[in-house]
Amino acid sequence: MAQEQQRQHCANGVCWLGKEDGVAKRASAAPTAPDLDRSVRYLTEFRKQLVAFLDELIQQFPSETDLIVARIFIKDRANVEDLMGRFIRDILPHRERVQQRDSSFFLEHSLLYSDAATDKVDHFQALWKSQRLDEQDRETVWRWMDVFVRIAHRYLTQFGYVPGWEPKPTAVFS
């Protein structure tokens, strides 16, 4: 089996080991203050955009109390690193499906709930399948997904996986 080639990259005094896939892998050197500032800016922007997305959904569907609860949780309670880490690990690998506007994506993946009860996940999926979303509404949701994918991808390429949210290893059977 061929060994993956790694190169060391440095910018602004921060070095990391990068693979050919473009994902940053932090080296043992501690990140500098400017690097942390950029990381925090990406995380803050990700949360801000998630809240704006939920605000738009709430405006469209004011009787959907689960959306209000999700907004409060994401804005005030959720650890933004966990939000970003989960999105990068679980959603970002499917970015081609987002680009292709593959509707089955929303039926197979939870956007707003990670460890929530299944009925909360099913609720968003039911909303997606319902006639309550017209084609323009669906395209708006896709555009929001484009924003989240863009922010998460930039974070991943610059800072690597959020610690504790690395991809789960897959078993190889022969």
**Number of contiguous helices:** 7
Distance between the termini: 14 Å
Morphology call:
globular
Instruction: Give the structural class.
Output: mainly alpha
What attributes characterize this protein structure?
174 residues, 7 helices, 57% helix, 9% strand
Describe this entry's structure for a reader.
The chain is mainly α. The protein has a domain at 44-159. It has 7 helices and 3 strands. The radius of gyration is 18 Å and the shape is globular. It starts with 5 loop residues before the first strand and ends in a 15-residue tail after the last helix. Mean pLDDT is 79; it is low at 1-21.
Summarize the structure.
This protein is mainly alpha-helical and 174 residues long. The chain has seven helices and three strands; from the N terminus they run E-E-E-H-H-H-H-H-H-H. 57% of the residues lie in helices and 9% in strands.
Helices, strands, pairings?
Blueprint: E1 6-11, E2 14-19, E3 24-26, H1 33-60, H2 65-77, H3 80-91, H4 95-99, H5 104-108, H6 118-129, H7 135-159
Antiparallel strand pairs: 1-2, 2-3
Helix pairs in contact: 1-2, 1-3, 1-7, 3-7
